[in-house]
């Protein structure tokens, strides 16, 4: 298939890959600022603000469960925004998901507490969280598809990795915002302090929308999906149906490989709660661990992505997943000891370095498993199924730990099993690093029922 843009589609100038990568980085950073401030608040505050009548253990479990509810909505968001993106264009999804996330996050900052309206408070909280999840379901897949289809043929992993670097940037900003908030006296923190990061999301939403509106649609979408008038072809009216009918093997691979995201939620949500509420470590210090690891990840992610452009997607991803299985156990052990230097070293090595190998590769790796006509839907649905599991991983881990300092061991085993499954799934996929998008597109027949060759 030709990849030359149609007459109705804008051509891709020299600067377009860089512009797409920048928009993906900034938009993803802003989007995931909203998402991560919720996770931090769920670990540190919501058990006392929205579930005060529960026991400490039950309150923590319920608070972390609301974090997981956002992941329940993500597969639905993936189907909705995948359909829009594969039929009508990647850009429409990039703008709408950011607006939805910003509105939902701003609303959380104005919610009444349990002490004010009773059970209605956690109901409203879960509703806003579901809207956040709906938005996040299409966010990364649309940014990845946009960047992948604008990238130079043999630097696709490098350019698409900026979406994940943006995610790390969003987590740094979110955690940095919470650092002074965490130092407030308990009464101020629980009454108004926790609301400030949520109120700030209105600036996030406006800035992100302005940046993303400057992007052009991708030439790949124009030639492979839209006709000469820019309308979607009749064959692609239901991308989700074509995905499950023709590309289910790779959809399954992506879903299982994406469970490696549990490493991130176990570190940033469960381990934070475990450190503060069970071991008794300082919350501000633990937030600095997260910030430090993510600063390192900002550099590591594009480096690992560049490596995968040279040696292949599979070996880099698998090394990151297997390394994370080991280092997650080391990090949890470090937290249980209460030795801050040990905690910092293990946390930076886990999230900043080793996990970044898988994180830097998956945007290109997953996107190349699908043809353009179902790429956004395939990446969105597959990742969100895996991420949904990751969203509830902190709740499962908290139940396994049983509020015990020694409870880290079963959580470490739980995390290792997840990483092994993700690594095995990724290794079974086809290697596409050294193929052009034309060659990848040509590799998909009318149907893709047989497993891809190793």
Provide the descriptors you would attach to this structure in a database record.
disordered N terminus; mainly alpha; Growth Hormone, Chain: A; 454 residues; single chain; globular
| Mass-distribution shape | globular
Structural domain tally: 1
The CATH architecture can be named as Up-down Bundle
What is the CATH C level class, in words? Mainly Alpha
Round the Cα radius of gyration to an integer and report it.
21 Å
Number of strands: 0
Query: How is the biggest beta sheet arranged?
Result: none
Which sequence of SSEs, written as H and E, runs from N to C? HHHHHHHHHHHHHHHHHHHH
Work out the helicity level.
Answer: over 70%
Topology-level CATH name:
Growth Hormone, Chain: A
| Strand percentage | under 5%
How far from one another are the termini? 24 Å
Which helices and strands occur, and which strands form pairs?
Blueprint: H1 16-44, H2 46-49, H3 56-88, H4 90-108, H5 114-117, H6 120-150, H7 156-182, H8 186-191, H9 196-199, H10 201-212, H11 219-224, H12 239-246, H13 248-257, H14 262-279, H15 283-311, H16 313-337, H17 340-367, H18 375-401, H19 408-427, H20 437-442
Helix pairs in contact: 1-3, 1-4, 1-6, 1-7, 1-10, 1-14, 3-4, 3-6, 3-18, 4-6, 4-10, 6-7, 6-18, 7-15, 7-17, 13-18, 13-19, 14-15, 14-16, 14-18, 15-16, 15-17, 16-17, 16-19, 18-19
């Amino acid at each position: 298939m030709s990849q030359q843009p149609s007459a109705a589609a804008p051509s891709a100038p020299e600067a377009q890959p860089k512009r797409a990568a920048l928009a993906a980085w900034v938009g993803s950073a802003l989007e995931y600022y909203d998402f991560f401030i919720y996770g931090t608040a769920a670990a540190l505050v919501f058990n006392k603000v929205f579930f005060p009548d529960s026991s400490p253990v039950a309150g923590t479990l319920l608070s972390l469960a609301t974090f997981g509810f956002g992941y329940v909505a993500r597969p639905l968001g993936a189907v909705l925004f995948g359909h829009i993106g594969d039929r009508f264009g990647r850009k429409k999804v990039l703008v709408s998901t950011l607006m939805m996330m910003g509105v939902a996050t701003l609303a959380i900052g104005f919610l009444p507490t349990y002490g004010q309206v009773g059970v209605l408070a956690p109901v409203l909280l879960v509703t806003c969280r579901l809207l956040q999840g709906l938005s996040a379901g299409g966010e990364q897949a649309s940014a990845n598809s946009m960047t992948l289809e604008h990238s130079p043929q043999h630097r696709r992993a490098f350019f698409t990795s900026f979406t994940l670097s943006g995610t790390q940037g969003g987590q740094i900003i979110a955690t940095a915002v919470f650092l002074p908030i965490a130092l407030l006296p308990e009464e101020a923190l629980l009454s108004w302090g926790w609301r400030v990061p949520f109120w700030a999301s209105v600036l996030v939403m406006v800035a992100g929308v302005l940046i993303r509106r400057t992007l052009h649609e991708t030439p790949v979408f124009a030639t492979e999906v839209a006709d000469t008038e820019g309308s979607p072809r009749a064959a692609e009216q239901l991308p989700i149906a074509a995905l499950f009918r023709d590309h289910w093997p790779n959809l399954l691979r992506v879903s299982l490989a994406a469970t490696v995201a549990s490493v991130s939620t176990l570190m940033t949500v469960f381990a934070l709660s475990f450190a503060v509420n069970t071991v008794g470590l300082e919350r501000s210090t633990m937030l600095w661990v997260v910030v430090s690891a993510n600063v390192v990840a900002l550099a590591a992610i594009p480096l690992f992505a560049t490596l995968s452009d040279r040696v292949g997607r599979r070996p880099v991803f698998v090394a990151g997943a297997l390394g994370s299985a080991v280092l997650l156990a080391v990090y949890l052990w470090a937290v249980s000891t209460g030795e801050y230097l040990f905690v910092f070293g293990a946390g930076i090595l886990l999230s900043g370095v080793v996990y970044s190998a898988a994180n830097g590769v998956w945007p290109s790796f997953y996107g190349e498993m699908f043809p353009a006509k179902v790429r956004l839907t395939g990446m969105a649905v597959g990742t969100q199924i895996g991420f949904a599991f990751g969203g509830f991983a902190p709740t499962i881990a908290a139940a396994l730990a049983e509020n015990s300092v020694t409870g880290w061991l079963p959580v470490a085993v739980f995390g290792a099993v997840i990483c092994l499954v993700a690594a095995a799934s990724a290794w079974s996929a086809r290697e596409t690093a050294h193929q052009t998008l034309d060659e990848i597109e040509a590799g998909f027949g009318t149907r893709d029922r047989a497993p891809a060759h190793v």
